[in-house]
Write the structure tokens for this entry.
Amino acid sequence: PPFVFLDENDTKAGFVTGMLVELLRKMLENTPELAGATWDYFKAPSNTGGYLQPDGKWNGMMGQLVDQRADIALFPLTRTLTRYQAVDCTLTYMDSGISVVIIAGKVTTGALSVLAPYTWTLWIVILCTVVGIALVF
């Protein structure tokens, strides 16, 4: 999904939109301690999440956070160990939920292992379908 949209030609206050921007606005609205707080949006010079360079400095959004030029990063950053060690990260707020499930302990190997996922009945139905289509056309 679109995390952050930036319209640099729009000079109105709403020139930054997107899922993360709306999430931040809702959090600020529902946090009494931050009532009346103001903030500015800016784009990181490299427009990347950033990585730790060989000289020990961060670039991208991570560089902005580590160097305290930004307090919050609205960026779909992948959490890594080095990023965790440098800044505080939120928990995952969006996950596709896609996973692969297999039965443990049922491993088949060999030349005919490609047949293992299906039952013999299904293979016979597939074979009959192929033969039937070949005879019709």
In short: Residues 120-136 form the longest helix (17 residues). The longest strand covers residues 5-6. Strands lie at 5-6, 16-17. The helical segments are 19-29, 60-66, 81-86, 120-136.
